[in-house]
């Protein structure tokens, strides 16, 4: 028993209820802190250079360049003529981005009425091709500028695009003319589905632009947060996007980040705004990530929206 004491001496992770109390205690008070914003932009620029590195581009990944997969122990792929032709020339985002909204998929968004607030941002980022159907518009909004897509979604929801390309292209229309950001070079099995998604969109003259996440960027962002106490094997998609936003935007507001079992009204809450699954803590390090984001909220570096929007 004493052994455990030496391994985990004082730190105890707060319970969900304690977190609710902490958040309620602070209330709606929030003040932007330009020094904090500048500090984080500089830290992220130094470690991870998001402007130059967030996507695989012709500029940062010429033919012959070796891309090391960030989610595998030891796996790489050299850029060939063929893959090179799929990369955008350079960072296509029109910088600097002013007000950014990063939208996680947490159940707190349901009945939040945050849709209008989100839609008013200049640049809106969403995770994992979330549903934006009518029933959710009031809570999550309609506009999107960048949306991530995990290759596993292509496999599971779109039969790996082997015979459902049209359904995929049609489903993507809700994201308008945004960027679709795929970690194509993170895990070995993810590359082919990502390339197929690229071709499905290109062949249908879709308005979406495919951006492949740069594995070097993902790895450096992972290290950045590891040094700040997040010990998961892999960061959640939402934290990658918040990091990107902190590096590129003048102001960041995060919505839908609440990986806890009860809401601010102390009632049970689902993991996602669009399902009824309860959150499972042990899966990701989302609660740990939340604590970090909450520190940033308290210091005025970004704003977290965890309750209703005005
Ligand atoms: O793929 P992943 O499980 O990371 O994400 P998701 O469930 O599609 O949700 C998108 C992002 O929202 C996550 O990566 C988290 O950062 C955030 N999230 C949260 O903070 N609390 C939740 N209950 C659900 C998602």
3D structure, described in words:
There is one protein chain. The chain is globular and about 55 Å long. It has helices spanning 2-7, 16-26, 34-48, 50-53, 81-84, 115-119, 134-140, 151-157, 165-171, 191-203, 215-226, 237-248, 286-298; strands at residues 66-68, 76-78, 97-103, 123-126, 146-148, 179-182, 209-212, 249-255, 303-305. The longest helix is centred in the N-terminal third of the chain and has 15 residues, at 34-48. It has a 7-stranded parallel β-sheet with strand order 7-6-5-4-3-8-9, sandwiched between helices. A two-stranded antiparallel ribbon has the order 1-2. A hairpin with a 7-residue loop joins strand 1 (66-68) and strand 2. The protein is α/β, with parallel strands linked by helices and 310 residues long. 37% of the residues lie in helices and 12% in strands. Bound molecules: cytidine-5'-diphosphate (CDP).
Strand content: 5-15%
Provide the structure class. alpha/beta
**What level of helicity do the residues show?**
25-40%
Distance between the termini: 49 Å
Spell out the helices and strands N to C.
HHHHEEHEHEHEHHEHEHHEHE
Shape: globular
Average pLDDT number = 93
Number of helical segments? 13
Hetero groups: cytidine-5'-diphosphate
In spatial order, strands of the major sheet run 7-6-5-4-3-8-9
* Unreliable stretches covering 5 or more consecutive residues: 1-5
Give the strand tally. 9
- Gyration radius from CA atoms, angstroms: 19 Å
Strand count, sense and barrel status of the largest sheet are: 7 strands, parallel
Mind sketching the topology for me?
Elements: H1 2-7, H2 16-26, H3 34-48, H4 50-53, E1 66-68, E2 76-78, H5 81-84, E3 97-103, H6 115-119, E4 123-126, H7 134-140, E5 146-148, H8 151-157, H9 165-171, E6 179-182, H10 191-203, E7 209-212, H11 215-226, H12 237-248, E8 249-255, H13 286-298, E9 303-305
Parallel strand pairs: 3-4, 3-8, 4-5, 5-6, 6-7, 8-9
Antiparallel strand pairs: 1-2
Helix pairs in contact: 3-12, 8-10
Bound molecules: cytidine-5'-diphosphate.
């Amino acid at each position: 028993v004493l052994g455990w004491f030496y391994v985990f001496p004082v730190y105890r992770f707060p319970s969900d209820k304690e977190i609710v109390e902490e958040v309620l205690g602070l209330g709606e008070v929030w003040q932007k802190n330009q020094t904090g914003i500048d500090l984080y932009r500089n830290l992220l620029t130094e470690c991870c250079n998001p402007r130059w590195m967030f996507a695989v581009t012709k500029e940062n990944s010429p033919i012959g360049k070796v891309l090391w997969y960030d989610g595998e122990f030891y796996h790489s792929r050299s850029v060939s003529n063929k893959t090179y032709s799929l990369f955008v020339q350079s960072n296509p985002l029109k910088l600097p981005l002013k007000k950014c909204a990063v939208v996680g998929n947490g159940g707190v968004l349901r009945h939040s009425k945050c849709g209008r607030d989100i839609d008013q941002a200049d640049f809106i980022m969403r995770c994992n091709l979330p549903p934006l159907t009518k029933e959710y518009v009031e809570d999550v909004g309609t506009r999107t500028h960048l949306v991530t897509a995990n290759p596993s979604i292509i496999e599971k929801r779109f039969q790996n695009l082997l015979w459902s390309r049209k359904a995929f292209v049609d489903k993507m229309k809700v994201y308008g003319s945004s960027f679709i950001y795929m970690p194509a070079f993170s895990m070995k099995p993810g590359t082919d589905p990502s390339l197929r998604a690229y071709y499905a969109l290109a062949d249908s003259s879709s308005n979406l632009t495919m951006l492949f996440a740069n594995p070097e960027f993902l790895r450096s962002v992972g290290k950045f947060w590891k040094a700040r106490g997040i010990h998961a094997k892999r960061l959640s998609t939402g934290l990658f996007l918040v990091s990107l936003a902190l590096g590129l935007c003048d102001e960041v507001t995060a919505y839908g980040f609440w990986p806890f079992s009860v809401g601010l009204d102390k009632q049970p809450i689902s993991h996602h705004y669009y399902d009824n699954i309860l959150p499972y803590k042990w899966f990701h390090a989302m609660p740990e990530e939340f604590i970090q984001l909450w520190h940033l909220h308290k210091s005025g570096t970004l704003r977290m929206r965890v309750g209703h929007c005005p």
